[in-house]
Each structure stands twice: as structure tokens, then as C-alpha cells.
Amino acid sequence: MFDNPEVLFYRKVILWRLVSSVTWALLLTPLLAAAFVLLSRFRLRHLVRPVSECLPVFTSVREVLGLLMICEMTVAFGLLNFRSYTVMPAVAHSKAVLLCRQLRPHRVLSCLYHCVMGTVLSWGCDILSNQRALVIPCPQNSGFHSDLGARCLNENGLVSLLAGGFVGFSYSLLGVVHNRNYVYFDTTQESKLFSVCRRLPRVLKRSATHACYNVVVFMVFYSCIGYIPKECVCKALGLHLDSSSVHPLHLVARLLDPPLLYHLWLSTTFLLFTWDVTLMLFRIFVTQVYTFPLQYHNLKNIARVLAGKHPTLVKYLALQDLALLSQDYSPRCKEVLRIHRRGGKAKRAAHTWLAVSHECLSRLTALTKRLNNYNSVATRHGGAGAQVPASINTPTLVQSLQRHREQEAFLKKDGSAGQGPELALFADCQAHIWAVEALANFVKVCVDERRDNVARGSFHHIFCCMIDLKEAVDQHLSLSGASRPRSCSMEDSYKTFPFVLQGRLQDAIKMMSYSLRIYLRKLPMSAEHQKRLQTYMQ
């Protein structure tokens, strides 16, 4: 098993990046916990006292155990991200369909895991903020104080634990809708430190905002059904609940208690921020550029990786490296293209180029076929809807027209292209964008070098493939009446894939045509492709 080169490569590239991201998340956890303790003990009248109280907070056994609980949940969350990540976004006809997918067994287990992790994290936050425990001695003015060893339920502690479980459950439930498991590739190539610093304020703002929403929704739920878990805990642990001294929280006045709301909001913000930072680090580390070897005899050769049965993430890293190495006249780029002399070295270079170009062209051709099939179906439906006479009112035609009108309204909603099934066509479009960039750059390098190389015989295939795909994308966007979203988060960046691909194809065709210039007419392309190429150039 361990002699399998694919397994070894996977362990080296992906697993080590996972370990690095989780390690950095653990190193940041004490700093985040210290900030949480400082804010939880903040008093407007005593600005110096909270700082002095925070200095010895991690020296006691109780606080250290609380910090260890938080660190353990951070590691568990990082491992759970690794089990559920995807480089292609989850796209469905509607958010309701995505929520229905949560009924699958593995998704139900994921929700339960997040619920437990949220409860444990809230417990650790209560320890660090010096909150009272869930079980406390009954107050002296309580009717149960005379009983020896009588214990009462601290409802504030129960609310805090239930809020953590609720936040964890909703985080997992809505994670598919918000594509939290989607590992996107940033278009800007920068160091990990700058990437973290650039994203951190946005993550903090989002965590604080979502924390407000979660606290409000949880308090509404607790005011309605909070008595059920309260009675269950009291019966299970044999606790008392004296409403005269331990104030019940189902009353609106108690639910709007500022200290309680502040503690819940701060704990929820800390929980979400810890998870989001861990997820952010995983995305940054796992999408960093990896330099693949180009020697064809090497089992980790970029061509073998693209053609092999590696995970999708590894193939994305290979395409990313291919697009980057093709951007300049580096030795790696020349090694893919150039024939130095006749013999073994030239043969290996030819093998590498043929495998790489074949993989890129296959991806572009497959997307062209998918788009043409979808466009033909959309065109037939549109034509049928326009040709149906008004006098015909059979149930079948009425239902068909109604579905067609609903589909048109759905596709034009919010002016965004690719809602539902349309976005599913472009779910793996990032790979196609890299393929277009790589092929176009290789063509430009070949022409500029003016030397014999292995890529010259593929020029006409590249041109024809890109022209066909450009026409299919143009027709698709025209049929959908789509417009590019004005602004979207990085998690929703896939919504711009159709427009990014359209622009890359246009730029690639123009760049290759300008590089070849007078040699264009000598390419063995059909008259139709030559005509469409002239149209694009004009």
C-alpha cells in the first residue's frame, strides 16, 4: 500500500498541508482565548482590572483544562474539514434542495459532530470566562437549602451549553448552503502571511455578524421550548429548580438580560471565529502552489498526475502549476516544449507535451459538449414556447409552458448567471480556466522562441477547441440573459466562472492570433473555423 506512488504523493502533498494548517490554528488558539478572556471580563468602569485578572488566568488547572478542551475541538474541526472539503462548489436548483441533502446519513452525523463540538467549546468558554458551573449548591433562601447536599440547576450555564450546540448544528446545517466546504483558489499569488492578514478582518466581521443572528434565533427557540431540556436535565441529574431564587429564563425580561446576551454573543463569536480561522488556514495551505517535476520518467510528473487517478485537488494543483509555468520563458516552460536534439530527451519532451495538451484539450472539449447539449435543450424549449398557439390549452402544454416560465424567471433572478443547473455546468470551471491560460501561453512561447518544438503540430487543435468553446459559452450566456454579479464573496466566486472563462477565451484567442499573425492562414483549420476566428478578431 505504501509503495503506491499515488498514495505516497497524496500523503506528502495534502496530509502535510493539513497538519501545517491545524498546527498554526493551535498556535493561534491561546492568543484568541486570551482576547476572549479579556473581553469577557471587560468592565467600562474598571479598565485596568480585567488586564490584571487575565495575566494569571492560564496558570490555574481549571483554566488550563478549559483551554485544552478548546484546542481539542480545534483539531477535531480541522480533521472534519479534511474529510468534507471539495474543490467544486455544491450547486443545486435551490437552497431547499441543498438542505434536503442534509438528510443523508453522513451529513446527519456531521451535524451531530458539530453540535457536540459547539457544546464542548461553549463549556470551555464558560470556564475561561469564570462563569458558574451547570450544577451549583442551592441558594440559602431556597426551600431546598436545608436538604443535605441539595443541588440546583444553573440555568445560565444550561443556556450557554445549549447555545453552543445550536450554533454548531446550524453551522453544519447551513455550511452546504454557504459552501463552507468549498476550497477555492485565490487568483492573487501571495505569501501565506499576507493572505492571512488580508482575510482575517473579513472573517472576524462575518463571525461577529453571524453570532448576532445565531443568538437572536436561539433565544427565540429557547423562549418557546426551553423548558423541555431544562426539565430533562433536572430529572436526569436529580437537580432542583427554584424559580424564586434561580430566575427562569423563559420570561422575556430575563432573556433580554444584557450580561447574558453579551456572554452568549461573545462566546458564539469566539466559537465561529475559531472555526473560520481554522478553515481559512486550511484553504490557504492546501491551495498553495506545488511545483511538479517535468521529467517523464518521474512518477510524480505533471503529465502523469493529470492523467492518473489522483484526487481532484491534486489535479487542480497540477493545472495551477501548469498555468503558472507557462506564463514566462522559464527553464521549466522550455523543458515542456522544446526539442533540444533528436533522441531520448526529445522523445520525453514530446511525451510530456502530448500528455499535458491532451488532458487540457479533453477538458475543454468535454465542457463544450455539455454546453452544446444544454443550449440545444434550452433553444428547443424556447422555440416550442413561442410556437404554441393560444387556442391550445391541453394540460400537458399548459404545465410545460408554466415550467418554462418559472425556469426563465429563476434564471434571471438577481441578474446572476448560473443559478441552479446552469452553475452546475461550470462547477469545475476553474480547471478549464487554467487549461485555457496554459495552452495560450504555450502557443505564445512557441512562436516567440522561433525554434522547432513539439507543440507546433497542435496549434490548429488548440485554436479549433477554443473557438468552439467560446461560441458555446457565448450562446449559453445569451440564452440565459445573464449579467455578471457586481460583487460576491470568495465562497461565491464560482458564480463568476462563466464570465471569467468567456474573458479568458477571448484574450487567449486574440493573443494567439496576434502571435501567429501571417501564419494563421497556413493552419489546417476548416473554413468555418477560419471564418469564426476572423469574426472574433474583428
Short description:
With 538 residues, this protein is mainly alpha-helical. It has helices at residues 5-40, 49-54, 61-84, 95-100, 105-128, 155-173, 192-225, 227-237, 252-255, 258-286, 302-307, 312-325, 331-337, 344-387, 395-411, 421-425, 429-449, 459-480, 497-516, 527-537; strands at 135-137, 151-153.
Q: How would you explain this protein's 3D organization?
A:
By secondary structure, the protein is mainly α. It has 2 domains: 272 residues, no CATH class; 215 residues, no CATH class. Helix content is 67%, strand content 1%. The protein has 20 helices and 2 strands. Helix 1 packs antiparallel against helix 10, helix 5 packs antiparallel against helix 6 and helix 17 runs parallel beside helix 19. The longest helix is centred in the last third of the chain and has 44 residues. The protein is elongated and about 100 Å long.
